């Protein structure tokens, strides 16, 4: 760890200065970061042209992320889907982040492709367009044509991006280590777990073979669908750093004019798109997690095409049932059913007050039950659900937030194409279908078999475990370890209280002694006087005043810390 800190020292200082520049000096001065930034290099909050304090704290956090670069932007974008960790105002700011970056030189792209494939570009592609179709922080896309004549797009990873990401991930771990106590005070109970999860996500995104596997999985799931198409990945000429995909033409799903020009019904297109997406969630449990208009194309015959499978969400069968149960409970205006399904959905469900939780869900149901169908909004419902999840600190699967975000995006697309589009009308029949599936004889038999296998495994190991416990008891070797958490803070507070009580007692004693000293009769020449009072009285009062000043300063510091 020490070696990593030394190697990242310059970058850590830069991060600290950016934090100070945007008014987050408390993050630096209240953590170990303060030791890494010389006072001479600290900048005043009010320096620079940007009026920092005319913005909110959440906006300034976004400014910091933007200045720190692509890896931090990626982290913030990932966290924008985690309403169980961050407050909604911060999520709103993170959703504004864009990671668009200029493309790198086409000569570098050609060199990377040749290095990965081990042969000249001209032997693989008949044509290779130098102008990029798009560029992002991880890579960029070029259009090309294979020697066999098929049109393709080639995703090429940026030069040295893996090394840069590894450096920034190492830096993130260092920053979390240095600021963990401060972050926990701000409500992030497990900052290191967040970085670990982000590292796994980034590692997966840096491996293009993962995206190719996802595309092949979806192609297999939807091979019998006529209205839905996923481009073919060319695995034989793809590697972890380049991905060759079938080129598919079409217009954005929100291009209503083009749809009408092709004599397609925009309303029908919207309905088909929503049905396809809900099928992914509630039937297959695997879904395309970024359905913004640029990733959803429509062909002249009405076929819907999904591209860019870099972000895919997955739900287990039990998570799928629990998620559907939340919506079904809301449709039935059953707050208790919603609460129980939330507990089934959560990875950890330590809700301190279930009555208050059910009451909040009942209030949410009342708020939406009174709305007309045209007034109902998936965006408002998602915000309300995410607010409850954050308030009760429920740790639910990240896929849940991806689904809510995707439904909001799809609702926006639907309203562009379909004036009376309502997401809830599409979700309702899928909820009924899930209930039928959950209580089907096949699923009940499967659950019974799983439970039986678990009980059998328990019965097989139980005699051995009991024998070991009895042996330890007979030998007197059985030990019970009890761990107390949080007592360090209590002991520290008790120590402070005792110390200050002693100071206060001494102060009171000195004041009493000063009063008693006035009653004494001192022979001439043995006691000095000042302003008619014995010097011993003045000394006693001075000591008492000094001790009271110390108590006052300590109390002021505590108030500042609490603020």
From TrEMBL:
**The keyword Transmembrane belongs to this UniProt entry's keyword annotation:** yes
Name the PANTHER family on file: CHAPERONE-ACTIVITY OF BC1 COMPLEX CABC1 -RELATED (PTHR10566), PROTEIN ACTIVITY OF BC1 COMPLEX KINASE 7, CHLOROPLASTIC (PTHR10566:SF113)
**What's the protein called, per UniProt?**
AarF/ABC1/UbiB kinase family protein
Q: Which residues form the Protein kinase domain?
A: 127-498
Family designation: Belongs to the protein kinase superfamily. ADCK protein kinase family.
Q: Which keywords does this Swiss-Prot/TrEMBL entry list?
A: Kinase, Membrane, Transferase, Transmembrane, Transmembrane helix
Q: Name one Pfam family in it.
A: ABC1
Which top-level group of life is the source organism from? Bacteria
Bilayer-spanning residue ranges: 502-524, 536-554
Gene Ontology molecular function? ATP binding; protein kinase activity
């Amino acid at each position: 760890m020490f070696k990593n800190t030394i190697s990242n020292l310059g970058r850590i200082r830069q991060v600290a200065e950016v934090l100070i520049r945007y008014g987050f000096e408390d993050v630096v001065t209240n953590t170990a970061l303060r030791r890494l930034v010389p006072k001479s290099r600290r900048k005043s909050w009010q320096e620079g042209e940007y009026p920092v304090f005319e913005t909110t704290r959440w906006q300034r956090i976004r400014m910091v992320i933007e200045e720190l670069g692509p890896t931090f932007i990626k982290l913030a974008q990932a966290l924008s889907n985690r309403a169980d960790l961050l407050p909604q105002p911060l999520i709103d700011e993170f959703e504004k982040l864009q990671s668009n970056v200029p493309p790198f030189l086409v000569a570098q792209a050609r060199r990377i492709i040749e290095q990965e494939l081990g042969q000249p570009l001209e032997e693989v592609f008949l044509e290779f367009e130098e102008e990029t179709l798009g560029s992002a922080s991880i890579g960029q896309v070029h259009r090309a044509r294979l020697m066999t004549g098929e049109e393709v797009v080639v995703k090429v990873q940026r030069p040295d991006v893996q090394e840069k990401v590894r450096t920034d991930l190492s830096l993130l771990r260092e920053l979390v280590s240095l600021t963990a106590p401060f972050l926990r005070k701000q409500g992030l109970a497990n900052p290191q777990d967040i970085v670990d999860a982000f590292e796994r996500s980034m590692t997966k995104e840096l491996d293009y073979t993962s995206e190719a596997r996802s595309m092949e999985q979806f192609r297999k799931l939807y091979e019998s669908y006529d209205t839905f198409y996923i481009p073919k990945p060319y695995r034989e000429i793809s590697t972890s750093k380049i991905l060759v995909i079938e080129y598919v033409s079409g217009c954005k799903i929100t291009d209503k004019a083009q749809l009408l020009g092709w004599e397609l019904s925009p309303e029908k297109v919207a309905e088909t798109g929503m049905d396809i997406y809900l099928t992914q969630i509630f039937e297959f449990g695997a879904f395309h997690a970024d359905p913004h208009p640029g990733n959803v194309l429509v062909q002249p015959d009405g076929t819907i095409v999904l591209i860019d499978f870099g972000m895919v969400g997955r739900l287990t069968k039990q998570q799928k049932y629990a998620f559907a149960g939340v919506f079904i409970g809301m449709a039935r205006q059953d707050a208790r059913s919603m609460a129980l399904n939330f507990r089934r959905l959560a990875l950890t469900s330590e809700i301190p007050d279930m009555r208050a939780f059910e009451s909040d869900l009942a209030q949410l149901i009342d708020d939406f039950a009174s709305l007309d169908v045209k007034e109902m909004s998936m965006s408002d419902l998602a915000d309300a659900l995410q607010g409850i999840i954050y308030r009760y600190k429920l740790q639910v699967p990240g896929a849940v937030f991806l689904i809510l975000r995707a439904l909001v995006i799809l609702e926006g697309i639907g309203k562009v194409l379909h004036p009376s589009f309502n997401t809830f009308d599409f979700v309702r029949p899928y909820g009924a279908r899930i209930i039928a599936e959950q209580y089907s004889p096949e699923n009940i038999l499967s659950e019974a078999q799983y439970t039986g296998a678990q009980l059998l495994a328990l019965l097989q190991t139980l005699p051995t475990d009991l024998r070991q416990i009895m042996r330890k008891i007979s030998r007197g070797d059985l030990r019970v370890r009890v761990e107390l958490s949080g007592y360090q803070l209590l002991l520290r507070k008790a120590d402070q209280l005792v110390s200050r009580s002693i100071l206060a007692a001494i102060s009171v004693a000195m004041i009493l002694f000063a009063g008693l000293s006035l009653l004494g009769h001192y022979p001439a020449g043995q006691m000095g006087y000042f302003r008619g009072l014995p010097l011993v009285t003045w000394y006693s009062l001075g000591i008492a005043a000094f001790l009271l000043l110390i108590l006052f300063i300590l109390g002021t510091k505590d108030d500042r810390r609490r603020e």
